[in-house]
Amino acid sequence: MALFSSLELNPDKSTGSIKTNEKVKVLIIGSGPAGYTAAIYASRANLKPVLYEGLQPGGQLTTTTEVENFPGYPEGVTGPVMMEDLKSQASRFGADIRMGFATSVDFSGPVHKVVIDEEHLIEADAVIIATGATAKYLGLASEENFKGSGVSACATCDGFFYKGQAVAVVGGGDTACEEATYLSGLCSKVYLIVRKPFLRASKAMQERVMRTANIEVLFEHQTKEIVGDMSGVNGAVLLNAKNEERKIDITGFFVAIGHQPNSDIFKPFINTDETGYILTVPGTSKTNVAGIFACGDVQDKHYRQAITAAGSGCMAALDAERYLGEKS
Predict the structure, then answer these.
(1) What CATH number did the domain enclosing 58 receive?
(2) Which residue of the set 12, 125, 158, 295 is catalytic?
(3) pLDDT digits (tens, 9 = 90+) for 159-189
(4) Does some domain include residue 176?
(5) Checking CA distances to 217, which of 124, 199, 279, 300 falls within 20 to 30 Å?
(6) 314 an active-site residue?
(7) 1 domain residue, yes or no
(8) What is the pTM of this model?
């Protein structure tokens, strides 16, 4: 995940003036598995990529304690360490990795323009967008306190750590039902906390949840507080429609109320779906604008895994290489 604000490309704005100008072959916006992998491949292709890491260098994985499902780490690895490894590998091949974030873009002409930190204008022959997506949370103080030690937004990533334990999933859509069903195969008990008196998920997903014995759906319940101690989460306090409290004993709390792709500044030029995920040509990283490519969670609303993000970063670099080769 990398955070980006949305400003018009206008050097006369009161937010600052464009102070410097630079031309590059390939500009990568955003870090994380997608951005760093794109940088590795682009560097090895001698494209001399420049990568700006965004406000959260390394992306969402820097908030993850243990990663056990990324190939090449048989003993597991922490998210921050893995991101440092990817960054070091990209640097080794010559990628120019910089601090800073994109504040505006102009993809209307043959040369793609990106403003960094409201003051540095970069003109690039090809741009790879790897700005990721931000998981939506409930906004509870206790939720923030236990992120990485019981609170997660990815059951596929973290569910294994709660094998044989009781957990809760918040949400009523397809994602929440999928997460609950996945966890039901690992955990002894799964509470599905649904704010409304019904599920918004597809009929098939609803039926799957309802016939899974160890999933208990708690309709018309909201989370008041997540509780725990130094070792992590050990429960949650819920409120029902009558404002009555109920405490459930859990060790994992999974938030499945959606993600917000970090794509706002690109929308005037790049096609997205109704949620904001960048649309790419199936089987490629190509967007509707020639020379602009997208990879990772900013264009992937289905898998959202580190390994799939890395794979799409590879695709973006190869697509950019071919695009530049055809132009020359």
Answers:
(1) 3.50.50.60
(2) 158
(3) 999 999 999 999 999 889 989 999 999 999 9
(4) yes
(5) 300
(6) no
(7) no
(8) 0.78
